[in-house]
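Moderator note: this is an archived Q&A kept for reference. The question asked for a predicted structure of one protein chain; the sequence and the answer are reproduced below.
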Amino acid sequence: MSPVSLPTARHCPPAAAPRRRPLGAQVWSGVLLGLLFAGGGCGEAEDATSVTSPLSPTTGDPPSVPSPEAPPAAEEPSPEAPPAAEEPSPLPPLYAIMYEVYDDSGESTSYLSLLDTLDIEAVDTSTSREYGRGRAFVQAYDGYLFVGEAESPTVTRYSVSDAGELVEAGVISFLPYGLTQGQFDSWNVTFISPTKAYLQDFAQGQTIIWNPSAMEILGVIEPPGEFFRQGVSLEGSPGVVRDGLLYRTFNWVNYDDATYSTDFLLAIYDVATDQLLELVPETRCPVPGNLVHVDEAGNIYFSNWIWPVAGTIMRGAPTSCVLRINAGESRFDPSWTLDYGALTEGRRGAMFTYLPGNQALMSAFYEERTSFDATTDPWSYVGSLNWRIWSADLDSMTAAPVDGIDFNGGAFTPVSFDDRQFVMVPGGEEEGYATQLYELVDGIAAPYVKLPGWSYQFVKLR
């Protein structure tokens, strides 16, 4: 990731450096789009009990009247069943989404919206909370919402009330460790347990260890010398934890000319001892930078973001592809890669996304729709609306474009809520990078929420 807000960051459209704005109120109630479900009350039940004369168990006749010498035994009142306890009404779902709205100068303002339904057409910024200039961040973990500021390395934790209010429940600053701006998305933060998380600082190469429950910093894993190369910046993939080990990749990029390294490192950390165990060099499939995915069997998939494709087409750099760490192993499988071109009619690809059932999504670049020369900016070239999202069956190794999604900028974000699969697809500069949420059903995309700006951060709180 670029240390400043530039078009060269993995998931950033062109933007000027943001200005800092302060955090807002400590307690706030999100405006929910759509109706909140009110708790249903229980009506009073009518008494339907009637008294009848009991019948004799042998003759079926009414029992004989007892003689005066034998007074009738007192009847014990029949016990009344205790009233049934009222079950609390289930709370409505609650989602949080952070997005950036760009102005004519290229600067952005971040907004946080709370939604109680996905079945809406758009969000209204007037009902959203503004989080200042630049890119703010959201993460959800252990019932809390974590919000990171844009230019300040400050993260605020919120609890969620039954009424859908966000109540401040702690603040942590990473300023003492040299961070100068916000960096708190899925590429930076990895939650390991309620009492331990890692924040990867790519600018300095360090891994900051912190406690999400106490909102305190615990320590740091110092970067090895291999992370630093002259004249280039350190980037990498998100981290993923399996069997007590965290895996992530590191690579290098020159943001001035969009040149990516043709090699990278697989870093393996022990999350119990907080030690970097090993750095494994790799030259195949440069360079991973997309979200990391794990399938049902525990295999881990690493793939590229859209930006390295520019070097492949414009400079003859190595072709990007997909690598896998098999379940039970700690190295990339030396005999397995996935070639985008084999599935997309020879096109360059990016954004491999594993879906349940051995299915996948990926973006394919249609270079026949555009051209370049010596003056073409690589970021603009590969960030153009010349990508399509393809759906693939990894068993039959067949693929086709997803119906319902037109040409786009390629950098989609997958989101899964309650067995429903969505993708967030940003538009182009001419529409302010407005992001459309689609639901995928049987290979067809249906449009849902339309956001007025760029977004790749969408979480479910309950």
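Archived answer notes: The chain is about 5% helix and 35% strand.
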